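Here is one chain, start to finish.
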Amino acid sequence: ANTAWAFATAGVAARTLFEAIAAEALRRINEFNSQNMANTVWAFATAGVTARTLFEAIAAEALRRMNEFNSQEMANTVWAFATAGVAARTLFEAVATEALRRMNEFNSQNMANT
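Its structure:
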């Protein structure tokens, strides 16, 4: 997640590297914490690298573990899915439900981004 984040932040979409990260992340998705999941989809979306299978796996894992996500991670995750154009209705509904439940944790930026 950190490598993808660094390349995306630098504006370098090293497609081969991102493909390798996606493949490895799919094998190890159960080891990712909520920040790793949010940072990974954010990096792919920011870099403009399509990885639909990875996004789908992260959506499924995030649904199982939504209670572990903080407000920034929820906001960054749904932003990434929207930016990447990956439909994830169930994930968005889960984030909406969780956000309503924990609205007091959101700062103004998180509210605007979610």
